[in-house]
């Protein structure tokens, strides 16, 4: 069982922090032990009202006595936020978890100016409903106890997978970090296609979303691979076969390779751009 009384501070109260906080609370973490800092009053008020957590305008208030600090700001403001946090840290140093895409452990440690135990995580927004996919990597010198703490905190949001090298996190970002958007795009496209073919808009939306859910649940619960499950839907000479042929002729597999490569490349590009700003 996780220690649901762990004091966790979030730096940045945007989309990702909100999703992670929701996952933690649904997992039984105590709202009174969670804090967030964000410059935006409306975001702070919404987080405090929705979750009953303490939302602060100043980082210093949010990280007071925190055992875990989760960096949830945009990569572009990483340096400012980390320097601010680093200046406030004292022994015993808390565990720092960064969810920032493409911001390296070396950059974070440099800005913090402290040898804090550090884990990089790449979650995705479905942590909001505890169905996230979360890649993790611990920086050198982070002890097993802190690695276990990071695992507990992030597992509240869904499935965790530790990668061996930090570079792999860029691929995780391109796969599962950005991935929900790819599936939402496909749902949107299916919905529009069904409307174009004459279905009522409500039915098109409901059936498209439920189909995505059903396919995902089968893929999770079945011993068969997605390819085998696909073949079970595809009756020889039937309707699915025609549609799959169109997707293949249109280059969907190759297009997917290009899209994931582009996202991975952007994560790497962000690392380089941001490291230069040090
Ligand atoms: N969204 C996603 O699906 C995923 C995002 N991530 C990563 O999570 C991080 C956050 O993304 P997301 O939540 O989408 O971004 P958001 O812009 O929604 O949230 C970031 C928040 O941080 C606030 N902020 C800016 N500077 C500071 C500061 N110095 N101290 C405290 N708060 C500050 C911003 O305020 P203001 O807007 O006023 O500047 C904003 O409210 C990014 O690094 C991203 O790479 C990782 C995985 C998935
Ligand atoms: O689009 C982004 O940069 C962030 C990281 C992964 C998902 N959202």
UniProtKB/TrEMBL annotation:
<dbReference type="GO" id="GO:0055129">
    <property type="term" value="P:L-proline biosynthetic process"/>
</dbReference>
<keyword id="KW-0521">NADP</keyword>
<dbReference type="Pfam" id="PF14748">
    <property type="entry name" value="P5CR_dimer"/>
</dbReference>
<comment type="pathway">
    <text>Amino-acid biosynthesis; L-proline biosynthesis; L-proline from L-glutamate 5-semialdehyde: step 1/1.</text>
</comment>
<dbReference type="InterPro" id="IPR036291">
    <property type="entry name" value="NAD(P)-bd_dom_sf"/>
</dbReference>
<dbReference type="GO" id="GO:0004735">
    <property type="term" value="F:pyrroline-5-carboxylate reductase activity"/>
</dbReference>
<dbReference type="InterPro" id="IPR028939">
    <property type="entry name" value="P5C_Rdtase_cat_N"/>
</dbReference>
<dbReference type="Pfam" id="PF03807">
    <property type="entry name" value="F420_oxidored"/>
</dbReference>
<keyword id="KW-0560">Oxidoreductase</keyword>
<comment type="function">
    <text>Catalyzes the reduction of 1-pyrroline-5-carboxylate (PCA) to L-proline.</text>
</comment>
<dbReference type="InterPro" id="IPR000304">
    <property type="entry name" value="Pyrroline-COOH_reductase"/>
</dbReference>
<feature type="domain" description="Pyrroline-5-carboxylate reductase dimerisation">
    <location>
        <begin position="166"/>
        <end position="270"/>
    </location>
</feature>
<dbReference type="InterPro" id="IPR029036">
    <property type="entry name" value="P5CR_dimer"/>
</dbReference>
<keyword id="KW-0963">Cytoplasm</keyword>
<feature type="binding site">
    <location>
        <begin position="11"/>
        <end position="16"/>
    </location>
    <ligand>
        <name>NADP(+)</name>
    </ligand>
</feature>
<keyword id="KW-0028">Amino-acid biosynthesis</keyword>
<comment type="similarity">
    <text>Belongs to the pyrroline-5-carboxylate reductase family.</text>
</comment>
<dbReference type="InterPro" id="IPR053790">
    <property type="entry name" value="P5CR-like_CS"/>
</dbReference>
<dbReference type="GO" id="GO:0005737">
    <property type="term" value="C:cytoplasm"/>
</dbReference>
<protein>
    <recommendedName>
        <fullName>Pyrroline-5-carboxylate reductase</fullName>
        <ecNumber>1.5.1.2</ecNumber>
    </recommendedName>
</protein>
<dbReference type="InterPro" id="IPR008927">
    <property type="entry name" value="6-PGluconate_DH-like_C_sf"/>
</dbReference>
<keyword id="KW-0641">Proline biosynthesis</keyword>
<feature type="domain" description="Pyrroline-5-carboxylate reductase catalytic N-terminal">
    <location>
        <begin position="7"/>
        <end position="102"/>
    </location>
</feature>
């Amino acid at each position: 069982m996780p220690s649901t009384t762990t004091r966790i501070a979030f730096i940045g109260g945007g989309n990702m922090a909100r999703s992670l906080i929701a996952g933690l609370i649904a997992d039984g973490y105590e709202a009174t032990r969670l804090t967030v800092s964000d410059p935006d009053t409306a975001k702070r008020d919404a987080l405090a009202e929705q979750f009953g957590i303490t939302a602060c305008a100043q980082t210093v208030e949010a990280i007071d006595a925190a055992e875990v600090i989760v960096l949830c700001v945009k990569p572009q403001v990483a340096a400012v936020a980390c320097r601010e946090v680093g200046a406030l840290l004292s022994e015993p140093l808390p565990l720092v978890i960064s969810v920032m895409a493409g911001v390296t452990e070396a950059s974070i440690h440099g800005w913090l100016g402290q040898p804090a135990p550090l884990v990089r995580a790449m979650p995705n927004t479905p942590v909001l409903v505890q169905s996230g996919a979360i890649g993790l990597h611990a920086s050198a010198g982070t002890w097993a106890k802190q690695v276990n703490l990071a695992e507990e905190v992030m597992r509240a949001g869904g499935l965790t997978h530790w990668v061996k090298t930090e570079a792999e996190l860029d691929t995780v970002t391109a796969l599962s970090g950005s991935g929900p958007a790819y599936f939402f795009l496909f749902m949107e496209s299916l919905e529009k296609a069904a409307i174009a073919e004459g279905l009522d808009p409500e039915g098109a939306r409901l059936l498209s979303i439920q189909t995505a859910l059903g396919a995902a649940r089968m893929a999770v619960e079945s011993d068969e691979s997605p390819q085998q499950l696909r073949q079970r839907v595809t009756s020889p000479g039937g309707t699915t076969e025609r549609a799959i042929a169109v997707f293949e002729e249109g280059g969907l597999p190759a297009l997917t390779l290009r899209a994931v490569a582009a996202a991975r490349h952007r994560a790497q590009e962000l690392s380089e751009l941001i490291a230069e700003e040090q």
